Amino acid sequence: MVQVKKEKGFTLIELMIVVAIIGILAAIAIPQFSSYRLKAFNSAAMSDLRNVMTSEEASFAENQEYIAVNTAIGAGSTATPSTTQVTNNIQGTLGGTGGTGTAASLPGAKLSKGVSLIIPTTTVTAQDYIARTKHYLGDKIQKGTAATGITSSTAATGGKVI
Prior knowledge:
By secondary structure, the chain is an alpha+beta fold. It has 1 helix and 7 strands. The chain has one domain (12-155). 32% of the residues lie in helices and 27% in strands. Strands 3-2-1-4-5-6-7 form a 7-stranded antiparallel β-sheet, with helices on one face. It is rod-shaped and about 100 Å long.
């Protein structure tokens, strides 16, 4: 009696089918992953804007003035976009038109890695302000005001908040 030796392993056709299936799945998953990443960057900027707006309201309750951050701070503003600038105590000046101009801070306001913020003095009044944030890898600038909350999310290019 002749014993037949059974070989174990995969055939070339089986391996090619598996590689083709993996390629198809990757072609579907990678574009979706990119869009989820973009949404996450935009959400980080919006979350930071909400945090800064809460700190602005706390500062207003204490000083009866909103704080201006006239020079953009955070990643992509004055530093290279890859620089991590997490600010736990954002510095600015009290008041806009007719304000005292004294240095002040937004205690508790924090920017995530890659997010920049600006609250220009020209937009700060006795009753309102306009704050803008942007993640340097995101594609939208988030804008909020004291009177209406987060008002818009506009398309933008580049890494800086304007």
